Amino acid sequence: MDKIRVLIVDDSAIVRNALAEIFNSDPKIEVMGTASDPYIAAKKIQKEVPDVISLDIEMPRMDGLTFLKKIMSQHPIPVVVISSLTEKGTQTALKALEYGAVEIITKPQFHSKQSIEESKIKLCDIIKAAAISRLKRKSNVRQMAVEPKLSADAVIPKVRTQSLPKTTDIVVAVGASTGGTEALRVFLEALPVDAPGVIIVQHMPEHFTRSFADRLNEICKIHVKEAEDGDSVLQGKVLIAPGNKHMLLRRSGARYYVEVKDGPLVNRHRPSVDVLFRSTAVYAGSNSIGVIMTGMGDDGAKGLLEMKEAGAQTIAQDEASCVVFGMPKEAIKLGAANYTLPLDKIAMQVLGFRKKF
Q: Which member of 54, 133, 169, 203 is catalytic?
């Protein structure tokens, strides 16, 4: 199999060297070159077109956002934005998603051996996901299996689900990864103000989820916010798991609320969709709806099956509307999805379920 060729664009020599070392440590990835600014990058692309570009935002001579717009208008190439954690950088990186970037991730943190290892896992997996995204023009890079490290057992033990009493509230649990920011926008914009409560895990770095939630809140009829520990799941309200934290559904009497907590990477992710779905199966059961959207790997597939077995209605996004048909595909293979639907039909189906409860 041909390796995924990556061009690193960043004005910091230290960051370029660190990223090159991380990417080259993966046998399926090869750094074809580095560039300290977009002008140098453009010259390299003229000679050899990379499979994926890793792009910084704040750079001299031309900022990353302008460069991204030029790439997408002239020669679309999968771009992964690797940004700092500043507020300005966060807002600009989210704007980059609107302009066509496949994914965003924070610059590597090397505070400990664990943070180094987790950075390697996340960065390399995102590059692989970008390489097979729908922007990909070549067909010589197949979808690559992602070896899960830990299952949801590491955060919430699997228990035999019992028949739960019906409640007046319905919980809609949603999981997404690569391409999910746009998919979630389409889904949430279609929901009315009285839609069932929604809890979401979108694979996204720490500090980005709050800005992402705030932006959705501006354009959606329903209220969208980054989840905080103890937040109630209510009609007309959407809770998005904070980056780098797991989110679980809990129940006290007839009240649903979320728990936000630390924990190890599950299926190579934190937050993990499997963790959210398993907790929803346990605490909401047939009072819930599960939706799995675009993304690489299999996070959420087993959890969606657990939801289905607990009596929940379950939906997988179809291949044609996915940026990466990984997570939904794995869920479908397990028989976890009651329905497989195009993105623009999912909200309608969820609202249709509400009438049956």
A: 203
Three-state DSSP at 163 gives coil
| Run of H or E residues at 105 | strand 103-106
Q: Running DSSP on this structure, what letter comes out for residue 319?
A: G
Domains 4-131 and 155-354 fall in the same CATH topology: yes
**Cα angle 278-283-287, degrees, rounded to a multiple of 5:** 100
- In this structure, of 41-55, 110-124, 277-291, 342-356, the range with the lowest mean pLDDT score is 110-124
CATH architecture group of domain 155-354: 3-Layer(aba) Sandwich (3.40)
Active site residue 203: yes
124-168 residue pLDDT tens: 999 999 999 865 433 333 343 444 456 677 667 676 655 565 666
Q: How confident is the model at residue 187 (pLDDT cuts 50, 70, 90)?
A: very high
| Three-class DSSP category at 178 | coil
The catalytically annotated residue of 279, 299, 318, 321 is: 299
Which tens digit of pLDDT belongs to each residue from 289-345?
999 999 999 999 999 999 999 999 999 999 999 999 999 999 999 999 999 999 999
Q: CB under 8 Å to 300, separation ≥6 — which residues?
A: 175, 201, 267, 272, 273, 274, 276, 277, 292, 327, 331
Annotation marks residue 298 as catalytic: no
State the fold for domain 4-131.
Rossmann fold (3.40.50)
CA 236 – CA 225 distance, rounded (Å): 11
Which of 236, 247, 172, 164 has its CA nearest to residue 204?
247
Residue 232 annotated in active site: no
Among 54, 177, 279, 321, the one annotated catalytic: 177
